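Dear colleague,

Thank you for sharing your sequence with our group. We've completed the structure prediction you requested, and as agreed, I am returning the results in plain text so they can be pasted directly into your records. Please verify that the sequence below matches your submission; if there's any discrepancy, let me know and we will rerun it promptly.
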Amino acid sequence: MKPRAQTDEHMAVRRGARWALIATGALIVMIAAALIIAPPFVLRYALQHYLKAEGITADIGHVHADIFTGQISLDDVSGHGPDNRRFRIGHFAVNIDYWPLTDHHIDLSYIRLANAHIDAGRNARQQPTIAGVPIPLPSAGGGQHNWGFGVGEVAVDQVTLHYRAPTHGDQPAVDQTLVVHGLHLGPIATWQPQQATHAKVQLRVADGRLDLQGRLSPLGDTRRANLTLKASHFSMQAFMPVARLGYVTALDGRLDADQQLSMTYAADGRLTLGVKGRSAWHNAHLATTDGTDVRGDSLSWQGDEQATLWRNHSQPGHIHADGKVALADVVAQRANQLDFRQKSASWHGKADAKLGQHTTRVTSHGKLSAQDTHLVSGNWLKLSSAAEHLTGDLNLTLTPDETRVDTDGGFAATGMGFTVPETVDLNSATLNWTGKTTTRLAGNGTHIQTDGHLTSNQLVFDVPKTSHVTADHVAWQGQVAMHSAQLFSRRAKGQLEAGNVHLNIPGAPIRMSAAQFGFDGQYAEQPDASGRALRLTLSGAAHSHKLDAVDTAINAPWIELLQTNASGIAIDGLDAIRVADLKASGVRMLGDSHGDGAAIRAVSMQAKQFALRDLQHYRVHDLELGGANIHTRHDKHGIGVISQFVGSMTASNQASKPHAKASSPGAASGPGAASATYAVDHMHLSGPAIAFVDKTTTPAVHLTGSKLHFTLDNLDTAKPNQDAHYTLGLDVGAYGHLDSRGKIAPFAPHGIRMDLNAWLRSLALAPLSGYLDAAMGRRIANGVADGTLNLSATKGQLNGVLDTTLTNFRLANSATKETDIAYGISMNTALKLLRGHNDIIHFRTKILGDVTTPYFSINNLIREAVLAGLRTALLSNYSPLGLLNNAKNSFLNLFRSVEDRPAIFTKGKHYVRPADRKYLALIAKAMRSHPGWTLHLAGQAVPADAKALKLHGTPAAQHARLEQLARQRQSAVKDYLAARNVNPARIIAGNPSVVDSNKARPAVKFSLDKH
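Please find the predicted structure tokens below.
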């Protein structure tokens, strides 16, 4: 047996161990109870202490913390911080797994937030805040740690974010509410970076929503996202907190979208984005800090976009888009810089963009349609159109120095308007373009180059103070280059066709128009040497149909040309204009302002080496008018339309003189300093008809002519002392003819200077009755005049002699008019006496006085020719000596036949000599007295004619010319007799001959058939 003491000791040990176990168990129970009961209290205290330290007064409802399961939840938490910013959380829960902690992994099973309302935003110092408390941002360095973080699920339901930010610089204040209807994300863990994470977000703003769901891989070396985005009436203001950081001051409207989004961000810094689907921005409004304000009823996109971008622009990025863009009622404005308005627009096609570090290039191919477009760019450009259609390629290049736009395709527009204020104004009802364009916007201005085909209808082109052009139709094929900077310079090369063109030149009394106009060549307006003005240059050829130039002062056409072709056109500034060759048909010059009459009508016109200098000095080297009909009229206002044009020119020159002195202080002064000058080196005018009507008499005088040939050499108004030489040939009436030649200086400084000769043959006097009626109240029934005129003038003073012969002269019957001639013999009696003799009246008078007021009038000239001629004829024929001489001649003529006496002509000429007029008058009288007689004519030319004509060429050519001269002599004699009332059918012209004998004389031989 053991001792008692030993037993007690043993019992005591057992009791102590039991109490120790009990105490330990109690302690464990107490610790366990503390771990179960204390955490919620500790957590509540810790949160309240932390929030209070941050300036937030919080009221925490229910707190659940399970240290064993790692579950923590808060319910009904609310509070407010600085600036009365509040928050309210209905439920918040988080669950942490402990086992991963051994691997330095913080792994949350879930994070849940529901039924919350949080005030967020930025404070006055632009710090992010929650409930008014600034949230510190992580440092850039970040530090390194070995802990991982993961969460199995993040769930957010019915969370309202009220975001507010004050005004900051150009950024406006923001006050926006966003409802996160649902957000579900997970699982995600940093130690499983390649793991795909499911994501689903549902956002609400008012009645709009935005849903986003898909899969994410945000933590791997290559980060990926594939998401589906759907939006319905989602307010764009929800993006304002983010957009505000990108210099956006206003963002509004509603978003509808259904898109597939993909993103890959590789470790090498390459970001690949993809967007496919549709989106529409309704009632859009976007404003930026630079003052740009964009509004639109809708902006929509449908298609596919792919983009590849590189971090830090280490390599060029690339963006590709294939789809359709549509705009409606878009307005884009920037104060004093931009005002763009467009009713609607749509684009369908493909586009590629290459984004470099210094250069960005965008290429596109597609079709653009737009309606009612208006663009105002600052104070230098206005553009508008009712409708536009653009197809083809567009390339855009952006560099730090310039923006370049290249197009290749077609463009059509209606109601087109293009204006560069104070430079050019263009409007077109329809415009169609096919070709290439290049537009470059740089610091030194805007450059535009085009190469293609353009058509336009109802075009109005106005260059202020320079020209105003309108055209029903315009077609252009060629190249154009324009540069708009301080000056609007341009150049063009190609072919232009225009219909119903009208040109007005402000300040110039001329208006031009053409039913059709064409030009092929080059045109330019480039800065001159000073760089402050543009200089016009032009070269090429032109043609036109129904070209008119109208004197606006009298509203009458200077010239009208049916068909025109001009070559060798060269303009080197408005002070040097040249045309090498101008050919025209259907010419009408100096038109009547009161009808369709004109001074000159011609079948054709040709001008060679035309030049216009300083818009005042006109010169043409060779001017020829063929098939001309000339009509002049004399009335109480002057010489018809010619007086109108001369008056207009005088007024224009007088008005230009003070203007020229004011604008050109250094210009020459004195008489005519600002007057226009005209020069013609050689002019030839030929035509079938010429008419003159004098309405100042009763009856009116009517003179007609034909076979006009007029030449003029060396006329120059700038050289007033230089003589101009002329020749004139004209058939007058049925049988008359006028020849004249001489020299004249019409603008000699001290008065006109001239020296001329004229020969008049068989001029019918009856058309001149008006002049005799005005002088002595008698009218001419019949009569023919032949004569010569030698006229000269020095310093405007005339000195001339008119030698005239009248034959077969008859007055109209007048019972009340009688005029004494001589010896008490009346005019009628004198005429009867003459008709009984040789029917010839000879008149010779001097022409003296000033050119502008000579010592005779046409009325008195006719009167004196009749009266003085009759006196001379009576005194010479019926004086004793005259009677004796006539008896001798009559005796001689009894034994002389016409076969023995030909009509002799001057060498080289074909008109009847004054010496033969009396002889031919006797033949005419005999033919009239014997209606059955027939007269045969045989004209001949001789070697003396060849010498006088200075003929050259082959013998055959010389013989043909002499034969023609002989035929002309026959015609001259026939016309002479026919003009004296001999029936032309009784005058037979035979075959002309060329006689080789040097003794032969130029003549027309007669043979008389009396049967």
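Summary note from our side: Residues 652-673, 820-825, 833-837, 873-896 have pLDDT under 50 and may be disordered.

Kind regards,
the structure core
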